[in-house]
Write a structure and sequence with these properties.
Blueprint (H helix, E strand, L loop, with lengths): L1 E3 L2 E3 L10 E7 L6 E8 L3 E10 L6 E5 L2 E5 L16 E4 L2
Parallel strand pairs: 1-4
Antiparallel strand pairs: 1-2, 3-4, 5-6, 5-8, 6-7
C-alpha cells in the first residue's frame, strides 16, 4: 500500500528525492525484503508565499512558510510553471 498525504497512491506517484517511510518484511530465508507499506513524508507543507527564478534562470525558488526550496522545473515530479501564490504545497526531498 502506498500512502501519499492520506490518499491511496501507486508506484507512478513516487519520484526520485521523495522522503518515504517503508515497512517491510523478509519473504524467505535469502533475506530479500518485500514492502508492506510505503508512506510519503513531506518535509514542508503550507501555502506558497513566493515563486521566483534563480540567478541561473534554470531553477525555480519556492518559498513555503518562509522556507526556501530550489526546484528544477521538470525534474521533481511536477511542472513548476503551474503553481500559484497561496496555493498549498507539500514538498519532500
Amino acid at each position: 500500500m502506498i500512502n501519499i498525504n492520506g490518499e491511496l497512491g501507486t508506484q507512478d506517484d513516487l519520484a526520485l528525492g521523495m522522503y518515504l517511510q517503508v515497512t517491510a518484511n523478509t519473504a524467505d530465508q535469502d533475506a530479500s525484503l518485500n514492502a508492506l507499506t510505503v508512506e510519503y513524508l513531506d518535509n514542508i507543507a503550507g501555502p506558497l508565499d513566493g515563486i521566483t527564478v534563480s540567478e541561473s534562470g534554470i531553477y525555480k525558488v519556492l518559498s513555503v512558510v518562509g522556507q526556501y526550496v530550489l526546484v528544477h522545473p521538470h525534474r521533481n515530479g511536477f511542472l513548476v510553471t503551474i503553481l500559484h501564490l497561496r496555493q498549498w504545497a507539500s514538498l519532500s526531498g
